[in-house]
Amino acid sequence: MKKNVIVIAGATASGKSSAALDVCTSLDGELISCDSMQIYRKMNIGTAKPTKSEMEAVRHHLIDVREPWEDFSSSDYVSLAKRAIDDVSSRNKLPVLCGGTGLYLDSLMFIRPDEACSVDEKLRAELLSRDKHENWLMLSQIDPESAEKIHENNVKRVVRALEIYYLTGKTKSEIDKTQLVKDETYDYTIFVLSYRNREILYDRINRRVDMMLEEGLEKEIRELLSSGELKEGTTAYQAIGYKELIGYINGQMSLDEAVESLKQATRNYAKRQITWFSRYKDAHFVYADEFSSKDEVSKYIINTIKEKRNELG
Question: Domain range holding 277?
Answer without folding.
Answer: 4-110+195-312
